[in-house]
Amino acid sequence: MKHITILVPDGQVNMGTLATIVGAFEIFTEANLYWKRKGKDIPYTIQTAGASKKVDFSKGMITLQPELNVSGIKKTDLIIVPPSGLRSAEDAQKGNRAIISWIEKQYKLGAEVASMCSGIFMLASSGILNGKTCSAHWAHAETFRNAFPGINLKEDRLITAESGIYTNGGAYSFLNLVIFLIEKYYDKETAIFCSKMFQVDIERHTQSSFAIFSGQKKHSDDDILKAQSYIEKNYQDKISIEFLSDKFSIGRRNFDRRFIKATGITPLDYLQRVKIEAAKKSLENTRKTVNEIMYDVGYNDTKAFREVFSRVTGMSPIDYKSKYNREHVTKNFFVASVAE
What we know:
Elements: E1 2-8, H1 15-37, E2 44-50, E3 55-57, E4 62-64, E5 68-69, E6 78-81, H2 89-108, E7 112-116, H3 119-125, E8 133-134, H4 141-147, E9 152-153, E10 159-162, E11 165-168, H5 174-185, H6 188-197, H7 222-234, H8 241-247, H9 252-263, H10 267-285, H11 290-296, H12 302-313, H13 317-324, H14 326-339
């Protein structure tokens, strides 16, 4: 029988950490039971493990006792790394040095590793992600890139898979990662069963529609900060990148280079994302049509607006409004409730 280890990290844990541990344990256990009901042998032993005898959550309101100490596990097949409050290599090393070293050792012995949300900081601290692609919660993207510049972060991706390492965007999308792993380690039939049993959308592939763009401003280039501020205050106007470079007396090519270095994206992409963020807020909170909102944020070409909106959010403007507009969602809920 093969082995799945769900880690219980030390320090800076929260109720979200506990939810992912319990959730992953429950779904993998259900997959085992499903195989048993089908007359198959249970394929995996699922156990929690950590470096301490117990870990307190929410100032001791809940205490979790890992079943095993990682030092006692000589070989495992899959390691689940839950999220925590860790946000740097230094923080991860302080409270979880033994766990991080164990992850690195097990990976070299052939184990696969899956991280959830901010668990990516602990995983990255082990060194096994260097030069590889990963995902993380969109809110942690800037901090992660600064801490681990040698790792290719794709914050729009819900799940990544490379060289036996699996990562996911974050928060409760960890459920999507677990269903993904169920399909890989069991089969498609079991994954579909678990998705239905736990009501997890098996078709979700991106976290783009959830992202809130705020722009990278933790840099020291004053001219670029002024350019960012100008874009955010005047995004409705017809702004060209040539106009911005002239306004701040910077050559066009040098302006692009400095903007990318400071923010991580091109000035055109920054302008588009500011416009789309404003459009998203209008779609969520007003009765305006898509065309009215398009004009409000400075677009005149319907096709161009829809293409940029879809690229940034992973959804069309109409689909976004249907999903997030408060009045629309409330109305549909009321109609469905009456129908029932």
